[in-house]
Design a protein that fits this description.
The chain contains 25 helices and two strands. It is an all-alpha fold. A hairpin with a 5-residue loop joins strand 1 and strand 2. The protein is globular. The N and C termini lie far apart (50 Å).
Amino acid sequence: MITQIADFLCGYPLFILLIGGGFFLFFYSGMVSLRHIPSAMRVLRDRQSRESGNQISSLQALASVVAATVGMGNIAGVAIALVMGGPGAIFWMWVSALVGMSTKFHEGVLTTRYKVSLPDGTPAGGTMHIIDRGLGPRWHWLALTFAVAGMFGTLCIMNANQLTEAVVTTFTTPQWLSESRMICTIASSWGWSPASVFRLFVGLSIAAVVTLVVIGGVRRIARVATWLVPFMVGIYFLSVLYIVATHISEVPGVFRQIFSEAFNLRAGWGALTGIAIIGARRAALVNDAGVGTATIMHGASTNTDPAREGLIAMLGPGIDSGLVCTLTALAILLCGDIEAADGIKGLEVAMGAFGKAIPYGEYLLMLIVLCFALSSMFSYSFYGRRCAAYLFGEKHARAYTWFFIATIVVFAVIPLGIAVGFCDLFYALMAFPTMLTLLLMRKEVRGEIKKFSTI
């Protein structure tokens, strides 16, 4: 039932909202994501963007947002898009990145403009606060919708599931699992399969690591993200660069395939639309543009200038959907086998490509996946906690953190198809309030663009 609802909401409705609404904001803002990239890079280098005192800076907020978005979606999500929609889906992920940068600019501006101060003086923001303070009480129901969806949508659904799959695929075989006395004993007593028991152990281990970081709050999450993000993106870039260099003659053919399949009308307009929807749907889980999670992290920064925060926020989709997803697509299309995938396959396809292209490549990708997945989990815990605090108050928000940790174990065990449907459903329920809010308040954002000459 969850999968059916998710398939409906994430079909034409989400495609029209994220891509259509994103294009409208892109042109309404004067193509801000193209014209003002130099301004964004200049602001990012400014000392003001790096200083934070006892809170988090704009740079740390961007690193934390990228830590969340440059996660399993950039590997498993791209692999799923290729399996389901073919190479053409990647083109629509690029389109989503372009319009997503404009959407993220609007998110950064509005969350800074309407951020609130918590009792301890800490700044806090998010779509729910933008709605309450910007649209007024009669829209409060929309803020509640976002907060409830955000509380569940930012659980580690895909991350826990696909990280566990990576560990199982890399370090175990069916024969090893069947010969492990401890695992078989537990499996027979519980009525589980040995693979499910092993996934449970992996989930418990992941939960233990995540606990060490998330209980330290947003400042610890931001500090970890600031050094982890450059490391993991750098290692991933060098890995794919090696794959490209060793298959350089095949690279032009891969790009031709992406563009030709993106507009392939051989199977009719329905097939073309389906490919575009698959690309946009996966992109929503990759860059989060229009979903609203970035409003929560950028709202927690010390910056009080909406235009500056908007410029920094819009760099996120360029990094994850523009750079990292392209790296993944190149590696899989050069060395992977998306045609042989049976059903919805994610990380298995990517692991196979890296193992084929690089000596011990599956183990290298395992390290990268570990960094990607954990970085996402750290930021997601903060997103969900802020939504819980909005709904139930600051005193009860800590209980959500422990609920968040417990669900890591649950999602490590469930099948991938259910995880994808559950994740897509709540992301869609977050996207509808966020995009509606951005569209209704677009004039306020347009006014901030005039301040670029003074930045």
